[in-house]
Design a protein that fits this description.
8 helices; binds adenosine-5'-diphosphate; binds magnesium ion; alpha+beta
């Protein structure tokens, strides 16, 4: 995917956008709207057509009934909050994204065109990493609410009735989740990196049963030893991500989590989990 000139040259930020961005120019056709969910690391904007926003706000007449269809993003626009010291650091970050793409593949991540801009809004020149990313529609897969196999059924039941079609959708999602786990584990063993699976909304399950990691700028080092690595925000995201991986295997794929599995033996030991909990507590206290 390449960024279209339309978006790059003509986009503008609407209403509640954080501030005017010098690297985005005005457009009548596209509107940037702050996404209703956002994380600690990125500013996320929906790129919508002005036409869709008009329909959403003014409504459309459907057989005499006034409807207000939600404007669906054409793309997501991500601005990383990280303050990079220089181009080298940014290139390193982009390399991590390429790594994720290589191991998980476009089927399992929301693909992004990463680019660097010179942000002058603060009065100085600041180098900022942005991404123009595929929009993924679907439900957040919340690892902390996953209990047993009914979870997936309930997730899809909003759109589809009980029956063979629902059954096959659940099976398809399970197959995709199994493949996601497999690829993530390859990335761990081959490269010593794990994507952040812990953040709320980082994983999205589409209505078609695909699983996509949307938080693509957040992969962390993993060491298979006693040390608990904390990220730049002080969060033990590596350990929590391994825990999420194990939850996917246990609760969704109904696998026995073997204690002879080296990854889980190290990361899920009760003693280590206690230390991780303490770090998590400290992190939330400092928020
Ligand atoms: N490409 C996308 N498609 C759909 N939703 C997205 C996309 N990117 C981010 N989001 C949503 O926006 C929220 C914040 O995004 P995230 O990438 O996790 O930000 P952060 O890096 O700050 O954690 C999440 O809830 C996520 O589901
Ligand atoms: Mg996130």
């Amino acid at each position: 995917m390449t960024m279209t000139n339309d978006i790059r040259d003509q986009a503008y930020l609407s209403g509640n956008a954080v501030q005017k961005l010098n690297f985005v120019s005005n457009s009548d056709r596209y509107i940037f709207r702050k996404h209703y969910r956002s994380g600690l690391r990125s500013h996320i904007f929906e790129i919508l057509t002005a036409e869709d926003v008009l329909k959403e706000t003014q409504g459309v007449d459907m057989d005499g009934i006034q409807l207000f269809p939600r404007a669906k993003p054409k793309k997501m626009f991500r601005i990383l909050r990280n303050k990079f010291k220089g181009k080298e650091e940014i290139f390193h970050e982009i390399k991590k994204y390429r790594l994720l793409l290589k191991f998980l593949g476009p089927e399992f991540i929301a693909e992004s065109d990463e680019f660097i801009v010179d942000y002058t809004g603060t009065g100085t020149n600041q180098i900022v990493l942005c991404g123009l990313q595929e929009y993924v529609e679907g439900e957040m897969l919340d690892p902390w609410r996953l209990f047993g196999e009914t979870y997936l059924r309930n997730l899809f039941k909003f759109n589809i009735q009980e029956g063979p079609q629902l059954q096959s959708l659940v099976r398809k999602a399970q197959k995709n989740i199994a493949e996601f786990v497999k690829r993530t584990r390859h990335m761990i063993t081959d490269m010593g990196y794990i994507p952040d699976l812990a953040g709320i909304g980082n994983l999205i399950l589409t209505p078609g049963g695909a699983l996509k990691l949307v938080d693509i700028n957040n992969i962390v080092k993993i060491e298979l030893d006693d040390s608990i690595l904390i990220d730049d925000k002080g969060y033990p995201s590596c350990d929590i991500s391994v825990e999420v991986l194990s939850i996917l295997e246990r609760e969704i794929l109904q696998k026995d989590i073997h204690t002879d599995d080296p990854l889980y033996r190290i990361f899920l030991s009760p003693e280590r989990k206690k230390r991780v909990k303490a770090l998590e507590k400290k992190f939330y206290k400092n928020l």
